[in-house]
Design goal:
By secondary structure, the chain is of the alpha+beta class. Strands 1, 2, 3, 4, 5 and 6 form a 6-stranded antiparallel sheet that branches. Strand 1 and strand 2 form a beta hairpin. The chain has 2 domains: 82 residues, no CATH class; 69 residues. Helix content is 50%, strand content 26%.
Length: 154
């Protein structure tokens, strides 16, 4: 797992540790590491106190890889902060997306309701057509009977 960490020298012997600041949850999502989570290095290190590093840890919390964080941080600044992607801007965009999502959900529900209403009306129209056809047949039969009576009476 990848972490953003800060180098810390502790004690009289200057034992070097890294204080975990944030961990990568997914490619574009990070979470702050609560508290003082420090992992001490087993071998001497030329890293300076306060230096920011990216640390890859194994599942057993052993250091797999340490690299300087400055290029990564500068890349973040280039990608997001030079384009005006402030946390407030990103929050506004997230709210706007949520509003659109809710609006689309309501529209989808309205379309589904209208579709059901149209289907019900279509069925009513078919029933009325059948009734009209039946009435037409009945009227035609009555007209034929009246005509037959009129012909037989003459």
């Amino acid at each position: 797992m990848l972490y953003l960490a800060q180098v810390q020298r502790k004690g009289f012997l200057g034992k070097t540790g890294i204080r975990l600041l944030a961990r990568q949850k997914s490619e574009d999502t990070w979470a702050l590491v609560p508290g003082e989570d420090i992992i001490f290095l087993t071998e001497p290190s030329p890293l300076t106190d306060g230096f920011l590093v990216l640390v890859e840890l194994s599942p057993t919390r052993q250091i797999v890889k340490i690299q300087e964080a400055v290029p990564w941080i500068l890349d973040l600044v280039q990608q997001y902060l030079t384009k005006g992607f402030s946390p407030a801007f990103l929050q506004q965009e997230a709210e706007r997306v949520e509003h659109w999502r809710q609006s689309l959900t309501l529209q989808s529900q309205d379309l589904a309701r209208r579709s059901i209403e149209l289907e019900a009306r279509r069925e009513q129209i078919q029933e009325l057509e059948e009734k009209l056809k039946q009435q037409k047949r009945t009227l035609e039969l009555l007209a034929a009977q009246l005509q037959a009576r009129g012909n037989s009476a003459s």
